[in-house]
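Moderator note: this is an archived Q&A kept for reference. The question asked for a predicted structure of one protein chain; the sequence and the answer are reproduced below.
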Amino acid sequence: MIAVYSLRDVISDGKEDKVKSLLSSFRCSLDRDAERYLKEKAIEHDIRGISRTYLAVDEGETPEDDTVVGYFTVAVKCLSVKENHNISAEIADKMNIDRGTAQAYLLGQLAKADGTGKGFGKEMMDRAVDIFIEANRALGCRVIRLDCKDRLVGYYGECGFVPVGKTKDGILNQMIRILA
């Protein structure tokens, strides 16, 4: 059975060795950076309040048999919007751009483990969007932002995101999705 847990809740159980062991079970050969993030930075970012990570865990017969089969990270990060942006007027209006900045939630990471089935990434995306919807109800921000490699633009497009430009370094694509 697969369950989704907040890393913060897992950490609060006070068993740091168990947490690190659980995180070390994650393998993602398609995105080694995502694997490295989970194993090396996720705990620190969660403790410092930079982001929150949610783990999709395939629960074994005992807790020692549990494996992370996917995860996503959420945060808050403003989106800089240039004056000469190519965002449609309809979307720009919904972004509530103020002096070149739009408030946004950030989907910082989304990764699934080697061997997970087709559609599992979209299931995790739906979970992340549910968290953003709850945050929207409490805080009012309605822009979800993510930065992705060229090969993922189509995938995120299928999830309702639209490209709005490149990151400052020109390496990643910035994409957004507007919550209703």
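Archived answer notes: Residues 13 and 19 are 9 Å apart (CA to CA).
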